[in-house]
Amino acid sequence: MIHGGMEHGEIASLLERLKEEAERAFQRRLLAFFGGGQDTLQLSVDFLRSRGEGALILTASGELPGVKLPEGFSLLAHNESEKLLGRTYENLIMDLTENLVPNDLGRAVGLIKGGGLVLLLLPHDFLSQVNVFHRNTLPPPFTPGDVRHYFAFWLKRTLLEADGVAVVEDGNVVKDGLTDAEEWVREPVVVPDGDSLKNIKSLALTRDQLRAVEEIIFFLQERPERGTLILVADRGRGKSAALGLAAAAIPGERAPLKMAITSAEREMAEEVFRFFRRGLNLRGVKYREGRGNFFEGEGWTLQYLPPPAASEGRWDVLFVDEAAAIPYRLLLKMARRARSPVFSTTIHGYEGSGRSFSVRFIQGLTQERFDLRKVKMEEPIRYSPDDPVERWLFRALMLSAEPGEMPGKIDRRRLRFNVEVAGEVLERNEEFFRSYFGIFVLAHYKNTPNDLALLLDGPNQWMASLSLKGTPLVALQLAEEGSLSRQVVEKIYSGWIPPGNLIPDCLIKYYRDESLGGLKGLRIVRIATHPHLQGRGLGSEALKRMEEWAQRGGFDYLGTSYGATEELLNFWLKNGYTPVHVSPSPNPVSGEHSVIMIKPLSEDLKRRLNDLKESFIRRTLEALPDPLRDVEPEVVRLLINPPSVDFSLKMTEEDLKRAVAYAWGTMTYVVSRDVVLPYVKAYFSTKRRPALERSDEILLISRVLQCRSWDETHRLIRKGPVYTMIRLKDVMKLLIRYFTGEEIEKEIGRYPTR
To answer: Domains (ranges, CATH) in the chain?
Structure first.
């Protein structure tokens, strides 16, 4: 008997009926056991073994003490599910009694083929359990008792309301999940005998996949001028395999051929490489494979590169897998630099939104007059269309969330701003919450199921929105930070990284001031505007109203962190935020350096802001020759926004004379940089300085502070190399006179007027 309810035979009977229906319809069926433990898991294993089937078993630890698994059963830890993308399993048994990481759940369910069962084992206290995911993300000063449990309530609600999902609670069947689905048989894929690439195309499992392979091959063979192909699909449609097969059809067609594959992470492209190898082997194409996914054959090469490197190269063919996870500016750069670029992405996935990718990216390509081809794959590979478990997963993890319909003309007097507990909103108004979350999805944020759970359960998380007529127009996710105890601050000071306290961690570690950890901060985790309303000032309006709410709540500062770009820096600077830290390491996907900015609200922090600014600028100036050398000079220019303070420049008499000899004489920059540098640092350390053009500031940043070459520098300011060299001398004349004073005029007078 299972916990005083159903007998083993009754559970087995339910499993049998679910299995028969799943096989008949080539769909999956899901059975959630609330209160299911070791005996339920053993029963599930015995049932599947009796049918001669195996299963993927996932537990929190990857262990099952006392359970001997028969052949055909694979046991792994939850967090190993990421390694399994691209594989297919007959059935899934997932033990969630100790922990539930939403990302792992979403990935694992997607691995199961039609006719399979998904068996979820959940604890008795599922609705109140503080699991490992909660503890790992719990920010101080909050305690386990502060955890909100809305994600568990939401997940259970979706299970109870979904078709094809059975629920057993404490041994009692709450719903059987049977749908009386009709039989479904996949239509065969037929490739004509005369097709020269039949051996490759015959690997396609659906007509949809075959069509995609053929369209990509045709595009690569045709090579249209400024052509670009975009392939979009939901997860499990076989798009990565289609890319790999199409890529394998090209070597030998023409030479020389230089190809590359890129994705946000190398692992994302493994399925592409797997089918690329299969295709080459079927064609009998000889090749060598080197380290790091480098392939070379007669007259052709193909290699994997991370996105920043791929965007800098020149390619005959460039495949970009999971493009939604890559910044928009890099995607456009790739499209410009490759002769035949192919972009693919998942529409409802964890890597980023394929819809935001396609909407914004297509607009950019259209504006630049690219010849755009679009291919959409809809038929699932692993199961039949309209699979109820897929529908449940999309709803439960908000993978299909979209912004609401436009409310018509925007009357700013009727805009409403609210800061609320996200779970309470989801409970009472799912449509509003989905519209709110959908704005993040379409704003090119990388949204994962973990983000959803953190928003719903995190005790420091707030959902904020600017709405009109019940439709969110601007979405904000806020996180309360700081208010840390002396003990916690001391741990951070010594090197500990606290969960959920990004800005206090930065302020304590980089400014070595423990008092900053006690301040109460509000971080804007994300902010996004409805895609049809961007550029109208609604984001700034939302920030203004949020600031008023934060002031009433006694917050000391507002803050944000993001990958620094010219556009985003201008937005945050315009809204009164000040940079206090820039990461020395670039993001491996975007190549951008993260910046942290704050806006003081308390009078005490406002008084201290100039000190923070001076410290930040001093550290940033020192970092520019090395860790920040590749940051765009325009970004550096915006980051270094000095206060209006007096600046005293200390130079020896010898160095003053050498500086004058460079600016007015014949000394070269190479032997004079050490005396040029102090003046440039002085200029960027105070607002009390001579007026320079933007191009002059870019010149100083690029050549002097970042030590870029003359060649790089003259291209950045769009002037000739000789002009650039002369202009630096002219700018130095201004700086020397301003920061040194009249006493330098006698030395200047020793040089003929030029």
So the answer is: 8-175 (3.40.50.11040), 198-377 (3.40.50.300), 412-623 (3.40.630.30), 653-748 (no CATH)
